[in-house]
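[Target chain]
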Amino acid sequence: MKTKSPICYGYKGVPLRKPARQVALELNRISKKYGKITRQIVVDESRKKESILHSLFEWNDGKAAEKYRLQQAGVIINKVTVKIVGKNKTEVQAFTPVPIVIKSVKASERKQYLPTTETLSRPDLITQRVNYITNKLLNLRKEYSSLKKFAKVWRAIDDVLVV
């Protein structure tokens, strides 16, 4: 008889204000109830104050609207591309995220953007960007390492990053 492996839930990045296990169990409950999970279903299920997820949402419409506009601004900034004319004529984001790691700076202002052409001419920003991409690749590999189809990709990441 097979026994189920214990499941340990956690968070990617900054944790939410509720234990990951509680959130995961609630999302599983919602999934069983509807046979799927969508953003809309999660919001609708979280409207009641008794809901486990309720406190994770901003229910003040004025504040929520401002947060949504900030999210839209991020989409707008990330949509614009620029072609770097040269040997490869590469098309890249026109603005590069430059995270600020200062606790006294408001969270909404910690992720700043600079023109990519400027970041490519500053060694300090190139180093910061390389470190950022390195972390993203390592996290991607960690998250999907069980997919054998990408074994060559994981080895290539290891070779490039000399892990």
In short: Strands lie at 81-84, 90-93, 95-99, 111-115.
